[in-house]
Amino acid sequence: MLASTGSASTYSRSLSSASTKAKASLKKAFENVKNVFGAARRNPRDFASRLWCPRTIAKSLIILSGLVFVGAVLFEILLYTRTGRTSRLGSMALTPLILLARPSVTLPQGTFQGRTSKVGPVFIESFLGMPYAQTTGGDNRFRAPVKVGTGEGNYDARGWGHKCWGGSDTQDERSGDDCLNLNIWRPRGVNPDQKMPVVVYIHGGAFNFGSGKERDIASFVAWGVDPIIGVSLNYRTGALGFLPSNLTAEEGILNLGLKDQAMAFQWVQDNIEIFGGDKNLVTIWGSSAGAHAVSDMEFLQVKMSTSSSMSSVHCLSYPYFKQSRGATASVDLLPSTWSFH
Predict the structure, then answer these.
(1) pLDDT interval class at 86 (50, 70, 90)
(2) Which residue is catalytic, options 87, 175, 288, 336?
């Protein structure tokens, strides 16, 4: 279960409490109106003088403002619980509060706390830099990726993790050996049991540079017609990930970058349901070198036939893929055990 979103019962209690307060305010307002008109019937002149009394006007404005505020709050709560969205006015009022929310998920490897941001029309929860494999340094250099172990620690997932060596560093993203990490974005306020489709993006860079930060996956998720989960990942590039030689062939360590990707896909299969995703509805998608990687995965994992069309590749063998289409390659992933030989 997700620790980030309130349960349905919490929302129900909040809505019930706000509704009770609204009813009490309305009842009091009607009683005041009834008393005022009763007094007006008994003494019209006195009523007119009191009606224009500054104190009476101020009290009326306060009551009216309270009713409008309670109604607006009820509307925003109802809209947000049903759609995960807020009105434009509600966004202006609630955004500062919602942005302070720290969503968290508990995985076998520990608890990760992400961040909330406003992207387009919706609020998006992001979990950045979560490791899917151990460091690539030390004894793990020029070796296949090693699965992360279990743990109970708490981790800050608000910032980008290290990217793999290759290409320039930026102010918020540095290179390092502990670079096998991935990033996840999901809409805020979505039912954890909804089982949203998942899209995993493989970055480009000629297999020599790049990182999962390459594309704005948060916007991809925010502007989706239906709720989806977006994932991007880092993998080893250059000589550390794709060193071609007879020695690396003999050692069985060719295409380590592709093995990193396969490890990330397995991590998604093992953990994405905790984020509200459906492991049976996972699509991998890439551009440039990432598109090549998608095709490489097809040929490395399954026996397949290809059509003569440049715009589509159809996989005719299961259980790994269903279909890919488009100029930038993408395939639908089915649950499986990923392994390279």
Answers:
(1) low
(2) 288
Q: Residue 294 carries which side chain, given as an amino acid letter?
A: V
- Active-site residue, 87 included: no
- Confirm if 123 and 188 have CB atoms less than 8 A apart: yes
Q: What angle do CA 133, 139, 145 make, to 5 degrees?
A: 25
| Average pLDDT of every residue of the chain | 78
pLDDT band at 326, cuts 50/70/90?
A: very low
- How far is Cα 101 from Cα 171, in angstroms, rounded to an integer? 25
d(CA 202, CA 200) in angstroms, rounded, equals: 7
**Which tokens is 297 given?**
């995965």
Nearest-angstrom CA–CA distance, 151 and 187: 27
